[in-house]
Amino acid sequence: MGAITQNGFNLLHTFGTNNFFAGSREGNFTTTGSANTAIGLVALANNTTGGFNTATGQAALLNNTTGGNNTANGVSALSSNTSGGLNAAGGANALVLNTTGSLNTAFGACLRRAPAVNTLRSLFLALERDDLEAAFRRHADALNGTVQVTGK
Fold first, then answer.
1. pLDDT-based confidence at 27, cuts 50/70/90?
2. 78-86: which pairs have CB atoms within 8 A and are 24 or more residues apart?
3. Which segments within the chain are labelled E, that is strand?
4. What is the pTM of this model?
5. DSSP secondary structure string for all residues of 21-33
Protein backbone atom coordinates (compact mmCIF):
# COMPACT_ATOMS: atom_id res chain seq x y z
CA MET A 1 0.00 0.00 0.00
CA GLY A 2 1.42 3.30 -1.04
CA ALA A 3 0.29 6.81 -0.36
CA ILE A 4 1.02 10.14 -1.98
CA THR A 5 0.83 13.06 0.40
CA GLN A 6 0.70 16.81 -0.09
CA ASN A 7 1.39 19.31 2.68
CA GLY A 8 1.22 16.47 5.20
CA PHE A 9 -2.21 15.19 4.13
CA ASN A 10 -3.15 12.09 2.16
CA LEU A 11 -3.72 12.92 -1.47
CA LEU A 12 -3.90 9.48 -3.08
CA HIS A 13 -3.90 5.98 -1.59
CA THR A 14 -5.35 2.49 -1.96
CA PHE A 15 -5.46 1.31 1.67
CA GLY A 16 -7.45 -1.86 2.25
CA THR A 17 -8.83 -4.29 -0.29
CA ASN A 18 -9.71 -2.88 -3.70
CA ASN A 19 -10.18 0.67 -2.37
CA PHE A 20 -9.22 3.89 -4.16
CA PHE A 21 -9.00 7.27 -2.43
CA ALA A 22 -8.05 10.57 -4.07
CA GLY A 23 -8.26 14.05 -2.57
CA SER A 24 -7.06 15.75 0.56
CA ARG A 25 -7.84 13.72 3.71
CA GLU A 26 -10.18 11.31 1.92
CA GLY A 27 -10.62 7.76 3.16
CA ASN A 28 -8.51 6.58 6.08
CA PHE A 29 -5.88 4.03 6.97
CA THR A 30 -8.05 1.98 9.34
CA THR A 31 -10.95 0.88 7.14
CA THR A 32 -11.58 -2.80 6.69
CA GLY A 33 -14.31 -2.10 4.13
CA SER A 34 -13.50 -3.10 0.59
CA ALA A 35 -14.23 -1.91 -2.94
CA ASN A 36 -14.74 1.73 -1.92
CA THR A 37 -13.98 4.74 -4.11
CA ALA A 38 -13.68 8.24 -2.68
CA ILE A 39 -12.67 11.37 -4.55
CA GLY A 40 -12.76 14.77 -2.85
CA LEU A 41 -11.80 16.56 0.34
CA VAL A 42 -12.69 14.32 3.33
CA ALA A 43 -14.89 12.07 1.19
CA LEU A 44 -15.62 8.77 2.98
CA ALA A 45 -13.11 9.85 5.66
CA ASN A 46 -14.66 7.98 8.61
CA ASN A 47 -15.44 4.65 6.96
CA THR A 48 -14.73 1.61 9.14
CA THR A 49 -16.31 -1.53 7.66
CA GLY A 50 -18.59 -0.16 4.94
CA GLY A 51 -17.93 -1.55 1.49
CA PHE A 52 -18.86 -0.98 -2.13
CA ASN A 53 -19.38 2.76 -1.61
CA THR A 54 -18.69 5.52 -4.13
CA ALA A 55 -18.24 9.07 -2.85
CA THR A 56 -17.33 11.97 -5.14
CA GLY A 57 -17.30 15.54 -3.90
CA GLN A 58 -16.20 17.35 -0.78
CA ALA A 59 -17.51 15.60 2.34
CA ALA A 60 -19.54 13.05 0.35
CA LEU A 61 -20.33 10.13 2.69
CA LEU A 62 -18.13 11.89 5.27
CA ASN A 63 -19.58 10.16 8.36
CA ASN A 64 -20.25 6.76 6.82
CA THR A 65 -18.86 4.04 9.05
CA THR A 66 -20.61 0.75 8.29
CA GLY A 67 -23.01 1.62 5.46
CA GLY A 68 -22.48 -0.21 2.20
CA ASN A 69 -23.46 0.00 -1.45
CA ASN A 70 -24.03 3.77 -1.32
CA THR A 71 -23.40 6.26 -4.11
CA ALA A 72 -22.96 9.93 -3.20
CA ASN A 73 -22.05 12.53 -5.81
CA GLY A 74 -21.87 16.19 -4.82
CA VAL A 75 -20.74 18.39 -1.97
CA SER A 76 -21.95 16.87 1.33
CA ALA A 77 -24.14 14.29 -0.42
CA LEU A 78 -25.07 11.64 2.17
CA SER A 79 -22.55 13.26 4.53
CA SER A 80 -24.49 12.33 7.71
CA ASN A 81 -24.98 8.71 6.69
CA THR A 82 -23.45 6.30 9.18
CA SER A 83 -24.93 2.87 8.53
CA GLY A 84 -27.58 3.29 5.84
CA GLY A 85 -27.09 1.22 2.71
CA LEU A 86 -28.16 1.04 -0.91
CA ASN A 87 -28.69 4.82 -1.11
CA ALA A 88 -28.08 7.03 -4.15
CA ALA A 89 -27.66 10.78 -3.74
CA GLY A 90 -26.63 13.26 -6.42
CA GLY A 91 -26.31 17.00 -5.93
CA ALA A 92 -25.19 19.38 -3.22
CA ASN A 93 -26.50 18.25 0.19
CA ALA A 94 -28.62 15.47 -1.35
CA LEU A 95 -29.83 13.18 1.46
CA VAL A 96 -27.62 15.18 3.83
CA LEU A 97 -29.83 14.34 6.85
CA ASN A 98 -29.99 10.58 6.21
CA THR A 99 -28.10 8.69 8.91
CA THR A 100 -29.35 5.09 8.95
CA GLY A 101 -32.00 4.96 6.23
CA SER A 102 -31.61 2.56 3.33
CA LEU A 103 -32.96 2.28 -0.21
CA ASN A 104 -33.30 6.05 -0.66
CA THR A 105 -32.76 8.05 -3.82
CA ALA A 106 -32.44 11.83 -4.11
CA PHE A 107 -31.12 13.95 -6.95
CA GLY A 108 -30.85 17.73 -7.01
CA ALA A 109 -29.62 20.40 -4.68
CA CYS A 110 -30.99 20.47 -1.17
CA LEU A 111 -30.53 23.96 0.17
CA ARG A 112 -30.43 24.54 3.92
CA ARG A 113 -31.88 28.03 3.49
CA ALA A 114 -33.24 30.22 0.73
CA PRO A 115 -30.46 31.37 -1.57
CA ALA A 116 -29.43 35.02 -1.61
CA VAL A 117 -30.74 37.22 -4.40
CA ASN A 118 -27.25 37.52 -5.90
CA THR A 119 -26.93 33.72 -5.95
CA LEU A 120 -30.22 33.39 -7.83
CA ARG A 121 -29.20 36.15 -10.21
CA SER A 122 -25.92 34.38 -10.96
CA LEU A 123 -27.73 31.09 -11.54
CA PHE A 124 -30.28 32.65 -13.89
CA LEU A 125 -27.60 34.51 -15.85
CA ALA A 126 -25.67 31.28 -16.34
CA LEU A 127 -28.67 29.64 -18.04
CA GLU A 128 -29.76 30.05 -21.62
CA ARG A 129 -32.76 32.40 -21.83
CA ASP A 130 -34.93 29.94 -23.77
CA ASP A 131 -34.11 27.05 -21.40
CA LEU A 132 -34.97 29.18 -18.37
CA GLU A 133 -38.29 30.26 -19.86
CA ALA A 134 -39.14 26.67 -20.80
CA ALA A 135 -38.40 25.53 -17.22
CA PHE A 136 -40.66 28.21 -15.74
CA ARG A 137 -43.43 27.32 -18.20
CA ARG A 138 -43.16 23.61 -17.31
CA HIS A 139 -43.37 24.51 -13.63
CA ALA A 140 -46.40 26.73 -14.23
CA ASP A 141 -48.08 23.95 -16.21
CA ALA A 142 -47.38 21.50 -13.38
CA LEU A 143 -49.11 23.82 -10.91
CA ASN A 144 -52.19 23.49 -13.12
CA GLY A 145 -54.31 26.01 -11.26
CA THR A 146 -53.31 24.85 -7.79
CA VAL A 147 -52.15 28.36 -6.94
CA GLN A 148 -54.90 30.91 -6.69
CA VAL A 149 -54.19 34.19 -8.45
CA THR A 150 -55.54 37.10 -6.45
CA GLY A 151 -54.44 39.91 -8.74
CA LYS A 152 -51.99 41.30 -6.21
1. confident
2. 83/50, 85/50
3. 3-6, 9-13, 20-22, 37-39, 54-56, 71-73, 88-90, 105-107
4. 0.71
5. EESTT-S-SS---
